[in-house]
Amino acid sequence: MACEPDCAGRACGPDGCGGRCGDCGDGAVCSDGACVREGCPDDEFLCGGDCSDLLTDVGNCGSCGHDCVDAWSDVGRDGNIPFEDTGARASCGDAECEYRCPGLATPLGDTLMGNVDHCGACGNACRDDLANGPAACLDGQCFCRVDGTYGSACGNHCTRWFDNCWQGCCPELVADQVLPLAPERGNLPNLWRGLTRQIDRRQRVHVVVKPEACERAQALEWKIYRDNGRTEYIAEEDAATCGAGAWEGFLDPGFYSLAVANPDAVLDVHADFGDPQPVFVAPAVRPMDMDDYARVPFRLPTAGVWRVAMTKQGGTCNPQIRPRLLGADAESIVSQMAPFGCEQVWMTTFEAGVYTMVHFGDGGHELSVTPAHLIRGPDVHDGPVIHARNWDTVELEVPADQVVDLELTEPDGGCIEAQMSMAEANGDWRDFADGACRRTLRYNAEAGVRYHITISPLRNDGWLPNGYRLTVR
């Protein structure tokens, strides 16, 4: 039977079969299978020809040749940073490698990945002077946090992460600009892109965002919020695929971000700052040819009852797409009637000033702003016949609190093709009449309050051939 050499646990000496497991050099001798150097203390070992305390030697920690610097990559997540870039000190204690930043008692391991005072390297402190969020260290890089969300320092503010401004300031939101696709970061998809702006005084702001092209566009989601130390959403809306998203309102002083999510589209951004400039003075009728979104400011020269109407010109009418009329405070003015057919009308008492019509949709529309045709109450008692083109308004005022009954009928006894609504003259509230062939409405009228009764034809041509009979009791 052949002899099998046995050198397990032996660095030198015989192998049991007439051979040797190794020879010792540099004046060392073999003792019980280990190379020892004559003169080494009992608690040291010969490593590479030198005596070494394996309990404390950084280059031979725990065993000969186990260099702590070379072993740095095996130490937690901190080991992903090259040791020479960390500024850390390596040591060996009780035959175990340890790594510390100067002056830091805690051993390194995950420290450089998340310590704001030693972020990515010893002594690399993240900024703590941001106005709206504390410093944060993530994966060895300095960031900040706002209401639990990571962001990046921009000036003296923390702004949330956006793919187009990773680790820095986002572009400033200005009048017109293009928001390009964000660069890929490894396997992370392009999600949110952002623009920021410092608002120094309270002012009106109008923002429109839309894809440049629709081939790859997804549904648009966008948000406007103020970075004031907590999430404060000013607006949060979704828009249809390829559609525009818009917001208009007043912003108080602060640092704002516009965040847009549409991964696969280059986006056009338009912004207006300050009060809108009217494009015409009423009365006027203006055609509006729109691709997707239109905004038309106009001026009412005097206070009074005005009729503002948006009418579809040709094509298919979509009652789900509703225009909005904004007042001087940028708030929506409620229409006195729900949209019907191809038209939506506002009829109420307006103050003089600038108003803005905003509309999402396509195709041609007509915007008409004209003084309301008011018929005073005494003229319509006992049911006289009044002809209507589109909308007429009857104004009533009762001398004392009383119940008022209104009845709208077709003069020749047929079914009336119209709706009737009633509201206070200032538009504070509204009600609608219902019925099959006639419309009736009962309400509690108060003395001294002017009421507007609006008659709205339901025919597409906006005309009641026989007029209508309004009876007030």
Structural class: mainly beta
Amino- and carboxy-terminal Cα gap: 128 Å
Summarize the biggest pleated sheet: 5 strands, mixed
Give the number of DSSP strands: 37
Alpha-carbon Rg, integer = 40 Å
CATH domain class of the domain at 173-271: Mainly Beta
The average pLDDT value, as a whole number, equals 78
Strand order of the largest sheet: 29-31-36-33-34
Low-pLDDT stretches are: 378-384
Query: What is the helical fraction, as a range of percent?
Result: under 10%
Strand content: 35-45%
CATH architecture identity of the domain at 173-271: Sandwich
Number of contiguous helices: 2
Tell me the overall shape.
Answer: rod-shaped
Structure at a glance:
By secondary structure, this protein is mainly beta. It has helices at 83-86, 111-114, and strands spanning 13-14, 20-22, 28-31, 34-37, 45-47, 50-52, 89-93, 96-100, 135-138, 141-146, 149-154, 157-160, 176-179, 192-199, 203-211, 220-227, 231-239, 245-251, 254-261, 267-273, 280-281, 284-290, 293-300, 304-313, 324-326, 343-350, 353-360, 363-371, 374-376, 385-386, 392-396, 402-409, 418-424, 430-432, 439-445, 451-457, 468-472.
Describe the structure.
With about 475 residues, this protein is mostly beta strands. Among the domains are: about 175-270, Jelly Rolls (Sandwich), CATH 2.60.120; about 280-370, Jelly Rolls (Sandwich), CATH 2.60.120.380; about 375-470, Jelly Rolls (Sandwich). The chain is about 0% helix and about 45% strand. It has 2 helices and 37 strands. The chain has helices spanning about 85, 110-115; strands at about 15, 20, 30, 35, 45, 50, 90-95, 95-100, 135-140, 140-145, 150-155, 155-160, 175-180, 190-200, 205-210, 220-225, 230-240, 245-250, 255-260, 265-275, 280, 285-290, 295-300, 305-315, 325, 345-350, 355-360, 365-370, 375, 385, 390-395, 400-410, 420-425, 430, 440-445, 450-455, 470. The strands form 11 sheets. Strands 29-31-36-33-34 form a 5-stranded mixed beta sheet, with no helix packed on it. A 4-stranded antiparallel beta sheet has the order 9-10-11-12. A 4-stranded antiparallel beta sheet has the order 13-20-15-18, with no helix packed on it. A hairpin with a 2-residue loop joins strand 5 and strand 6. The longest helix has 4 residues, at about 85. The chain is rod-shaped. The chain starts with 12 loop residues before the first strand and ends with a strand. Mean pLDDT is about 80; it is low at about 380-385.
